[in-house]
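fwd from M.: "can u put these together and see what the complex looks like"

so here's what she sent:
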Amino acid sequence: MMKKKRFLFSLLIAGFLASTLSCNFVLEEDEATAWNTAKPLKDIYNYNFLMGNVISPGDLGTVRFSILKRHYNSATAENDMKPDAIAPGSKPADGWPWPYRYTQTDNKIDKIVDAVNAAGMKMHGHTLIWHRQTPSWLTTGNRETVLANLEKYVTDVTTYFEGRVISWDVVNEAMRDGLSASDAGNWRSCLRTDSPWYRAIGSDYIEKAFLAARKADPKAILFYNDYNLNSNTGNGKPEAVFNMVKDINTRYPNVEGRPLIDGIGMQSHHHLNTTPQSVEVSIKSFIKLGVKIAISEMDIMASKSDDNNLTNEWNEDAAQRQAEKYAAMFRIFKNHAGYISRVTFWGLDDGKSWRASSHPTLLDKNYGLKPAFRAVAKPDNY
Ligand code: G3I
């Protein structure tokens, strides 16, 4: 009898100690009033996928970096890893600039990558080959010249960041807009012809970029990244991307031990009228390809100021509808978590978002928790 009492007493003490230690003054998200007391989003989704957000040089050493570090375990440079940031505006007379720029004192991207890694977060690389934010000298010349530039640029950059960047958007936004389902059968005819890479090289610029990246850093996870990849009726883009990845991975089934394209990045710049079902249809379809899926640039525009799809103003009702939309999306992500490697938001707060006046993020401009934050933290309750 005495033994049993002692045992129960020890259990009580152990339970008290465990709850005190594990609590660590972290409040449940629905009790929390601020970003620094709310349970970290990265812990909530620890067993599902990485949680990411964007970073810019000005964030280092500020409250913004503290927010990033608390809630996210992955970061993507919003602009500073794009070709126009990495390579100078014109080709210097003495040859290739790379990695010349990294010997300069104002080396913003190295500072970002080092700070992200030192904080225990994973760095995602955005983006190697894109039709925008790319200095024109890289894409000027005949096929042979431009292909050599593409291969050298991709090789040099991925080699430079090897071991410090875990994954890359190797090609970004190669498909044109306004594709119909009937276009999608021939993916090459769906490529945007306004890409200077396409114009100089032709449709094989895509596989050439992936081949160079895989060879330079075989451990890095290689993504094709694009927007409007949710399957709305009449939108042929998701199917065109499906067909491209299927074709390339069928032709290159084993490059350094695996198919050439590791994953598809669904940018996910949504708005209040986006239907979550259209997102799930695409996720299910991409899963059939056997590739990873990243939700790579997520935000949900909630007022008409920046988004032609909407007619409503920003108010409490819009904030609530936005929260419900985020919750519905996260319920889907959780259901397919085995195939989703990362969910990255495109903006820490509404103040500095690229679409600030549509209030698309989880925090307001004073870093206050929006209903959207609570919805992401507890999607099943919405
Ligand atoms: O750095 C200059 C600054 O010196 C100048 O004073 C200022 C004046 O406008 O412009 C600054 O550059 C801006 C840059 O963002 C940094 O803030 C550019 O004008 C502006 O065009 C650029 O916008 C970026 C956009 O990509 C450009 O393509 C956004 O921040 C960035 O969020 C956005 O990100 C893209 C992804 O890379 C790909 N998917 C779509 C997504 C949203 O458009």
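replying to her w this: The chain has twelve helices and nine strands.
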